[in-house]
Write a structure and sequence with these properties.
This protein has helices at 4-27, 54-65, 67-70, 76-91, 114-129, 135-144, 164-179, 184-201, 230-247, 250-267, 292-309, 313-329, 355-371, and strands spanning 40-41, 52-53, 101-103, 106-107, 162-163, 212-213, 227-228, 268-269, 274-275, 278-280, 285-287, 290-291, 340-341, 352-353. By secondary structure, it is mainly alpha-helical.
Length: 372
């Protein structure tokens, strides 16, 4: 059963997205001088000078590719192309990888990050769904350039580090390409990333999934070096549940629900009704602040778990997660947000980060899709 408050919040969030968020992130967020999108807007809606990250360009292109499904009547195709064209013209190196940063309109350096490549793949999947005929070839070419690990997943670019987070977003991109009608390479990627999580990343004792790994995908030997993010437990759970539905693999669903149990038990603060930022390897709080994005991941996972299991617990959690988003969005300039709720219950005053728009768009999309 859907809580009545969830229905009301769905309408409120969807209206905010179309009425306020899409317009300001196109009108003020797009850089019409040097190209691409600004990384931050101050809380009066003015761009904040600084480097532009590749992940932000990809995320903004992704968000605008989805704008029409929410009913935004603005120039969403132009906005999507604005981000993708900037990636191609300013970020893509001769080897086909995308540079991490650009400042002052020119390439800041040649550094690349696996995380950024994952978001380029996700943006291209969104573009393919709305008719970009070239996106599939570009995405397949980029995928071939990523350094696969012999035990599954992918190494970091440059430093070769083994990190769960960029591999999670490659999983997300693979599922998006499957939904966009991509070929077998994307199903193979999704299956490989699911197996990585199930066989390598999830601690069989605690059921939690860590962030950083040693060679061979081993958890750090020193427990002090082990980090568990509640938001990523929810995010991996959402992806594994989607994969379970596509593949029929029951182990993925079981692991996903256990990840959610871990995140709720250790990472949800009942006093503030939010998911906190960080736990240690023993699942004790390390950072009690609560960024905006873990709340969106909690909402997405709880909505899907409720649909799949029929357990009334999850719609209740979804209602709490959806309600928790509202204070983050209550700022003087409609369409912006605050990113961090401190452990003292006070929001940090800082510019709105464009990178959070992606999290909000996906969560609001899941909320609309799950409830009609």
């Amino acid at each position: 059963m859907t809580p009545p408050t969830l229905l009301a919040i769905r309408d409120r969030l969807a209206g905010w997205l179309v009425r306020d968020a899409y317009p300001i992130w196109w009108e003020a967020g797009a850089d019409r001088i040097d190209g691409g999108f600004h990384d931050r807007l101050d809380l009066s809606g003015r761009p904040v000078a600084g480097l532009k990250r590749a992940r932000v360009q990809a995320r903004q292109a992704f968000c605008f590719a989805r704008a029409a499904e929410f009913g935004w009547g603005g120039p969403w195709r132009e906005a999507m192309a604005h981000g993708l064209d900037f990636l191609t013209s300013r970020r893509r190196r001769p080897d086909g990888l995308y540079r991490a940063f650009v400042g002052g309109g020119e390439a800041a350096d040649e550094a690349v990050d696996l995380y950024d490549q994952a978001f380029v793949l996700l943006a291209l999947a969104a573009a393919a769904r709305v008719g970009d005929a070239e996106a599939a070839d570009v995405a397949a070419g980029l995928l071939r350039r990523l350094p696969a690990h012999p035990l599954g997943g992918f190494r970091g670019l440059g430093e070769g580090a083994l990190r769960a987070n960029p591999n999670m977003h490659l999983f997300e991109a693979a599922l998006a390409w499957m939904e966009a009608g991509g070929g077998e390479i994307w199903r193979a990627l999704a299956e490989g990333q699911a197996r990585l999580a199930l066989d390598r990343l999830i601690d069989p004792v605690t059921g939690a999934l860590g962030e950083d790994f040693a060679e061979g995908w081993r958890a750090p030997a020193d427990p002090a070096d082990r980090r568990v993010e509640p938001g990523h437990q929810f995010e991996w759970a959402w992806l594994l549940m989607r994969w379970s539905g596509m593949s029929g693999e029951p182990a993925a669903l079981a692991a996903a629900l256990r990840l959610m149990d871990v995140a709720e038990a250790a990472g949800a603060d009942p006093a503030r009704r939010v998911a906190i930022n960080l736990l240690d390897g023993a699942l004790k709080p390390l950072d009690g602040a609560a960024r905006l994005w873990p709340q969106t991941e909690r909402l997405k996972a709880a909505l899907l778990a409720g649909q799949i299991t029929g357990d009334d617990r999850w719609p209740t959690v979804a209602g709490e997660a959806a309600e928790s988003l509202i204070p983050y969005l209550e700022v003087s300039t409609p369409g912006l947000w605050r990113d961090v709720l401190g452990s003292d219950g006070v929001f940090v005053v800082e510019p709105a980060k464009a990178s959070s728009f992606y999290h909000l768009v996906v969560a609001i999309g899941e909320l609309r899709g799950s409830m009609g």
